[in-house]
Amino acid sequence: MDRNVLHILKERGFIYQMTDEEELEKILKESNITCYVGFDATADSLHVGSLVPIMALAHMQRGGHRPIALLGGGTTMVGDPSGKTEMRQMLTVDQIRAFGESIKKQFSRYLSFEEDRALLLNNADWLLPLNYIEFLRDIGRHFSVNRMLAAESYKQRLETGLSFIEFNYMLLQSYDFYVLARDYDCLLQMGGQDQWGNIVAGADLTRRLLGKQVYGMTFPLLMTAAGEKFGKSAGNAVWLDPGLTLPYDFYQYWRNVDDADVEKCLGLFTFLPMDEVKRLPRENINRAKEILAFEATCITHGEEEAVAAYTAAAGQFGLTDPNGKVRTSSAIIKVNLKREANIPTLELPSARLNEGVWIVKLLVEAGLCGSNGEARRLITQGGAYLNDAVIDSADMTVKEKHLREGALLLRAGKKRYKRVVFV
Asked: What are the chain's domains?
């Protein structure tokens, strides 16, 4: 049997439960479908915990299917009780709208919305105009309170207290599935394993109202080897917004995952082939962590930020090369990651080192500054580096003693690098 996206998701560790697996597998193999995941707007950024459903949508799109990222502008008004021991903080309409606008921008890093290859929708468009009495008569009558209370998300809350407003959440999420199936021919809802009851209820409602078979899939709740939820660093959330979690800190989060979690993370949070996912941790665990951190940062923040974070980490902590040796912080980065952009290199005559090269002129020749004046200002402001050390004088002369492994590493600011070799 040919591999389809369902096999890919299984192999990479995305799937916890499915409804009617055989039928869904057949449909995914024979046709391109529309699928969706909902994201409530409870903060002004998504975090690492949201990456599993986002990456699943990305794999669906790569497999030729159309993903819908559904912003929960309406459901956030109610608050999802799933996975919570107490009622979520009630947000104002303005807060939810502002959070939603911030989150919208993040999806385009993972999905292509060109030519309707993916859709970004907001359930506020159909939930907020609902008439409550009509909704109860048309939708609420299809729900059994006994079955709702049997759902794991509600059972866990009955001991600590479940508010009536939260009790309505399942109806609203089910209505989302119905609307998306009706208006966008959406056949598959995906979400975390705590969403199973809501997804099954939505599939049942859609069948009742449309006579249409739709499907559900959940992802496992990810725990670290230490028994903590993924996406926390020193007790704080690791955000996808670079203004909340710097790309360097984002890189370091992945670089510091437990050895036992590396293969799982490579499968879920990168697009590396599975043979590499399985092979890398066995060959060199630290090297595998560097590749995980680089790939995850590249997907979320772009290649330039990933290279900058990788290089900065190498300068601070040393770099593990493919042979397992750790280079010192003063070494020049020469490792060629398979998916990492090589640092641009400038070649100069070795004879110039005999007399020395003025650092200002070298920054200009390397293309890091447009003029001597700009180079002087960069040095004065502390933004110029030689071999990851701040250049503290514009009068400095670079000589052979400054070479590290036969080269120099120049840096302007956080992101712009040039390797200089003398031949």
From this structure: 5-219 (3.40.50.620), 232-327 (1.10.240.10), 345-422 (3.10.290.10)
Nearest Cα neighbor of 417 from 338, 363, 361 is 363
DSSP secondary-structure letter at 115?
A: G
CB burial of residue 136 (10 Å; 0-12, 13-18, 19+): middle
DSSP state of 23: H
> What Å distances lie between residue 236 and 244, 348, 386, 417, CA to CA?
11, 47, 34, 31
Residue 123 near residue 73, CB atoms below 8 Å:
yes
Distance CA 268, CA 97 (A): 30
Burial (Cβ within 10 Å: 0-12, 13-18, ≥19) of residue 227: exposed
Alpha carbon distance 364, 231 (integer Å): 42
Residue by residue, pLDDT tens for the chain (423 residues) are 356 899 999 999 999 999 999 999 999 999 999 999 999 877 778 889 899 999 999 999 999 999 999 998 888 877 666 655 455 566 777 777 777 777 888 898 999 999 899 999 999 899 999 998 998 889 988 887 878 777 766 666 676 667 677 778 889 999 999 999 999 999 999 999 988 989 999 999 999 999 999 999 999 988 777 777 776 555 578 999 998 899 999 999 999 999 999 999 999 999 999 999 999 999 889 889 999 999 999 999 998 888 888 887 775 555 555 443 433 222 223 333 333 334 678 888 888 888 899 999 999 999 899 899 999 999 988 889 888 788 989 999 998 888 876 788 888 886 677 888 887
The single-letter code of the amino acid at 10 is K
- Which element (helix H / strand E) includes 86? none
Q: How far apart are CA 171 and CA 205, in angstroms?
A: 9
Cα distance between residue 229 and residue 399, in whole Å? 51
What is the distance in angstroms between the CA of the first residue and the CA of the last residue of the chain?
A: 56
Kindly state the tokens that stand for 410.
């120049």
Residue 277: count other Cβ atoms within 10 Å of its Cβ: 24
> DSSP secondary-structure letter at 118?
S
The CA–CA distances, whole Å, from 134 to 137, 164, 253 equal 5, 18, 48
Contact call for residues 382 and 341 (beta carbons, < 8 A): no
Q: Do residues 358 and 397 lie in contact, with contact meaning Cβ atoms separated by under 8 Å?
A: yes
Asked if 81 and 40 touch (Cβ cutoff 8 Å), the reply is no
